[in-house]
Amino acid sequence: RSPGGSHSVGKFLKITYITRVARFSIKIGKICRQSCGGMDGKMKIAKFVIGEKERYGEVQGNRICEIRGDIFSGDFEVTQTEYPLDKVKFAPVTNPTKVIGLAVNYSDHAAEHNTTTPEDPWFFLKPPSALIGHKETIILPPNAKQVEYEAELVFVIKDKIKNVPVEEALDHILGYTCGNDVSARDIQEKD
After folding, report:
1. Which residues touch 47 (CB under 8 Å, ≥6 apart)?
2. Where are the beta strands (DSSP E) in 26-146?
């Protein structure tokens, strides 16, 4: 757990998504794959930039093998084209239309802010422009005096969905990754 932190609605700074450690569970029956590594039904998928072009790839040890096709539909293959990890720039794993967060979702966090966990979930939105790639600079507003951050578990949803029954929810998750949520508390408190 990182110091401070919050999931609350407010003025947020850029969020760093660490795509390097993204681990996606993908049903083997749905993929056409000729991998340059082992096949255990789970893949580490990352979006990366080489030259000026963004690509998806499977991370395998100290290299990334390029993916051809659509990772969201499952119609893709891992090619033999590979790059050393230290030669690529990692980008946010998706280009979402929105980022949905869940606020004050555990008791320790609620206690930090002298409140209790809500009976019903508190959701908030962040714009896609809040996403930046791994190791990119987080831009802080010059008037921020109390900047806090915390680690987040980030789910990547592969389908456009609404009102999905709980028992079907996992069918719509492509995978997960971790994120670094950064907030300017003093500015946020003014909202």
Report:
1. 19, 54, 55, 56, 57, 90, 91, 92, 93, 94
2. 42-43, 45-50, 53-60, 63-70, 75-84, 89-91, 99-103, 122-126, 131-132
Q: Is the pTM of this model over 0.90?
A: no
The total number of residues written for the chain in this structure: 191
Q: How far apart are CA 6 and CA 72, in angstroms?
A: 30
Paired tokens of 61: 């040890």
Task: Measure the CA–CA gap between 78 and 76, rounded to whole angstroms.
Answer: 7
Q: Is 110 helix (H, G, I), strand (E, B) or coil?
A: helix
Give 106-119 pLDDT, tens digit per residue. Answer: 788 788 878 888 88
- Give the CA angle between residues 80, 83, 89 to the nearest 5°: 135
CA distance 150 to 8: 12
- Nearest C-alpha neighbor of 6 from the set 157, 114, 93, 129: 114
